[in-house]
Write a structure and sequence with these properties.
mainly alpha, 6 helices, 0% strand, elongated, Pentapeptide MXKDX repeat protein, signal
Length: 105
C-alpha cells in the first residue's frame, strides 16, 4: 500500500512540476532583444510581400523588370526599407536575384 501511495505521490509531483519546464518565452529566439521583432516574419520569407514580384505560385520565376518596378512602387516606404535592409543582411542565394533587382530602386 505504501508503495502505491509513494508511486502516486511521485507521479503527481512529476506532472505538477512539468509545467515549470514549459516554454516561458513568447519569442522565437530567447536571445533576441526585441520580442516583438522576433515574432515577425522576415520580409523576404513573407509570401504576401514577395508574391507581387513572382509570376508563379511557387515563386521561382520573377516577373519582368517593368512589373517589378511597378510592384515596388506600390509598396509602402516602410516595407521597401525593410526589404532592402533584409537583403543587406541575408547571405541566402535564394533571394540573390530579387535583391539584385531591388538594390538599385
Amino acid at each position: 500500500m505504501k508503495l502505491k501511495f509513494l508511486a502516486t505521490a511521485a507521479m503527481t509531483l512529476m506532472l505538477a512540476s512539468g509545467a515549470a519546464y514549459a516554454q516561458t518565452s513568447t519569442t522565437a529566439d530567447p536571445a533576441a532583444g526585441d520580442p516583438a521583432a522576433a515574432d515577425k516574419t522576415k520580409p523576404l520569407d513573407d509570401p504576401m510581400m514577395m508574391k507581387p514580384f513572382y509570376s508563379d505560385e511557387a515563386m521561382t520565376t520573377m516577373r519582368s523588370d517593368d512589373e517589378i518596378k511597378a510592384a515596388w512602387a506600390a509598396m509602402s516606404a516602410d516595407n521597401q526599407k525593410m526589404m532592402k535592409d533584409e537583403c543587406g543582411k541575408t547571405d541566402s542565394t535564394k533571394f540573390a536575384e530579387f535583391c539584385g533587382k531591388i538594390k538599385g530602386m
